Amino acid sequence: MKENSQLINNLKAKNSRICVVGMGYVGLPLALELGKHYSIVGYDIDQSLIDSLLQGRDPRGEVKSTAFADVDITFTMSESDLTDISIWIVAVPTPVTKLKSPDLRPLLSASDTVGRHLEPGSIVIYESTVYPGCTEEDCLNRLLNISQLTYPDQFNIAYSPERINPGDKVHTLTNTIKIVSGDTPETLDTVAQLYESIIEPGVHRAPTIKTAEAAKIIENTQRDLNIAFMNEISIIFDLMDINTHDVIAAAGTKWNFLKFYPGLVGGHCIGVDPYYLTYKSEELGYKPEIILAGRKVNDNLSKYVVKKILGHLAYHKIQRDKSRVLVLGITFKENVSDIRNSKVVDVVQELQHYNVSVDIYDPHVDQSELKEVYNLESIQDIGSNYDCVIAAVKHAEFATLSEQDFLDICNEEALFIDIKGAYRHLSKIEYWSL
């Protein structure tokens, strides 16, 4: 294995390159930032994505076109371009199956790609969220089987979990401390030096790869549980005719109260990562109670929202198959186009199951992706005569809508569902929030 200083010096001199595998929400900004200092290969298997990147455009709108200027980067989906690479960074999705178990296919496929081109003296860094042990067991085994190299004599592995938050312009890649780990002290030094060259506040060196994997998994699991608590509290307070947001405002006056809010928990992290931890735990013989209970509460919240809507329709004797519902926002969070694991979709599909007509309006969503992934469409213009409006996602475009705007498109007995508690000032329309 090359000395860490030699490897870094070769990268700085551009005698060797870094390959980032996966040009998604994590890989693309990382590759562009590294491209300011090193020679980078940005690899992905999506031809349409690569075509957009070659034109200096991020189709998801997360990265500005100016970020593509003055960087040394080659975007490709051809494995023939994967040469002269001494550091590989794997940043591919790690979703779950329909049965809520880890789906490692993208990760293992990426490992196979790396293995086919892995050269002696290289380091493979994983950034994808996984359960503790995955890097040193599942991923390493694939690298060994495909590359036919010996470990750790001819290559090393490391783990540095991503901390990208789509849509967040405050906590960015370069101003957020990065966790790093490696299989040897020398590997750790190399990986730390690499990330320190682009991360302003520096890195945190975890003592082991498993520690770094575990740190990532509990970051999101902790948040999932806190939101689950607030969601369950919201259900209880609803039965008591108490507004949860009013309670949080009051309780928040105490110095040690944590202001978490109820809501739909979707996306590629919080709604997914806890299942990686519970999977590994059950594999080792322990069934988690609290984590799975929190997941159950959050996964079922969409049904609770639909129950409120159906109850409203029944109370006003509105036939389900003649009712109309408007959903404002279908992405998993505000001001992004990301629809991965969007729980708003669950609300829409549940309503459609009861033959309710649903219009979706979202100025951020990619129409073709929404159709391909969920077989849904977003309307271009908001209609009228709605029996219910669901303010599901707090996009900036919706902030200027007034109560009169809603009254103009709703029937007299309409219900306004405020998932985020952003319209608590409404008084002329029947209102309900989590």
CATH topology of the largest domain: Rossmann fold
Instruction: Note the beta-strand portion.
Output: 15-25%
**Distance separating the two termini:** 56 Å
The side-by-side strand order for the widest beta sheet comes to 3-2-1-4-5-6-7-8
Q: Using the CA coordinates, give the radius of gyration.
A: 24 Å
Summarize the main sheet. Answer: 8 strands, mixed
Overall 3D geometry? elongated
Class of secondary structure makeup: alpha/beta
CATH class of the largest domain: Alpha Beta
E-strand count: 13
Q: What is the helix content?
A: 25-40%
Just name the CATH architecture of the largest domain: 3-Layer(aba) Sandwich
CATH superfamily of the largest domain: NAD(P)-binding Rossmann-like Domain
Instruction: Give the H and E element order.
Output: HEHEHEEHEHEEHEHHHHHEHEHEHEE
Tally of contiguous helical segments: 14
Mean pLDDT: 95
Low-confidence stretches: none
Please tell me the total number of domains: 2
